[in-house]
Request: fold
Amino acid sequence: MRSSFLARLWILSVLISFGLIGIAATANAQPAAGGSNAPAVVATTAPASPAALCAAPKAKSPPPVDQPMWEKLTPIALLLVVIGLVISRLPRVELGHSVEFRRRRLINWLVLGLTYSFLYMARYNLNQFKYVGGLTEGQFGTIFGWGSAVYGLAFLLNGPLTDRWGGRTTILIAAGGAALTNLLMGYMIATGASPFGTPFRTMLVLYGANMYFQSFGAVSIVKVNGSWFHLRERGTFGGIFGILISLGLFFAYDGGKLITDALPKNLEWLFYIPAGILITFFALCWMFVRDTPAKAGLEDFDLGDASKPDDGQPERALAVIWRLLSNPIILTIAIIELCSGFLRQAILQWGRDFSSGIGLGHSFVIENWGVVSCIAGITGGMFAGAISDHLFQSRRGPVAAVLYSLMLAGAVAIIPLLLLTDASFDVKHVPLHLRVIPWVIAFMSMAIIGVHGMLSGTASADFGGRKNTGVAVGIIDGFVYAGSMLQSFIYGAYLPEKLIICPDASTRPNPAARMIDNWRIWPYAMIPVAVIGYVLALRLWNARAKPKTGA
Reply:
């Protein structure tokens, strides 16, 4: 009883620490108003007032530079090489599965996983919409923050529903609902319709609905694959999960950029195209995805995890939630994933803005953000899976600690690189030490995506068991998006906006977005969060799921 009380007290103290982090970050930030995607000379003097900027004639944007075809194809070719190399080197844990079983399992997780990847495209297309000027940074922070809150709270309903209905049913709900809401967002952009009063409020409501349906995605994929992968295989599956997340990033960022480059005046297609793809994968999931090997005509097998023998009596959702929240390991994983949610989205949603703001918008990493994020996620996921199963005997805590140490090192390394920079430099002559920063960001992305795939996609199935995977993933993903919500509100409110919106609805580049000092909160806010995640991961060093047996 005393240990249970202390565990809850410890969790409460961590949550209070996060509140203090948020207050400290906002107190030290410098709010500024709205800039362009292409950075100019970094300013040192106080920027002109918005009224003065709006009174001046709007400067013509320089024509886009058309890259040679080989430059466009090189990143994609690099991505294909990395995927091929990683797949060919996947470690295999031999458990005696038949060729027929392996073939059917491949079809099951590939269709399911690609559906999840395209759910990412239908979620993070909002970032590209912001990046091309469809939303201000403040509007994006509010919309994505509330969307994250909806996503995180939805587990109270969707986790138990997934355990009751099965992952196949709920992935169909995710794909169908996300497709519908993206069609509606596209229609709103195309026609200017605002049924909820203003375009901003309408986008806020529709994106919140999108995120509700999206919240079924991760729960569904882990629920289904929890019945197809043995405990000793799940480290590798955690790596596969990281690949699927990473492909979603590629589709969202580089796919979204391809859409907006081709159709700059028809931004509704940024939402229509993902919706059409999800409709296709809704049909594929209906045809090919099955919840268990038995439902695919094969035999179920002992998973070696925390699954209890099925007595045919489903547990009440509240009882399962309480039992899991009373487990200090599940709680620790959840708090670690809260940190992961903060850090992962800080990088994915604001990394391009930060780099552009300090004069690095045309670096290889930023120009190919989707490919680089995808490769970083794949390598991080496979590294995490391999060392978990083959170095740490299927323990997840040591892997999280290793990856968090890399994430922390990257965030700390950015600080002196910024401090050593003369704020008046011309971006045509960016200092060599500053050009390292986008690659450091890619390195950080590799680490934190690896943590997320390992803990959300693997440890939740280990410690939740087959019957309660949905609730376990829901709890952990809820904490992930609590962290996502926190960073979205902080960065959306206190990073400088790239554009100033004038009274006549025209826009001007915001000089405050070119002041390097205004971007320092970005790495500063990540460091204490990474420290907390690292310390908590050390507490899980020897944690391992124990198979349960009948009474």
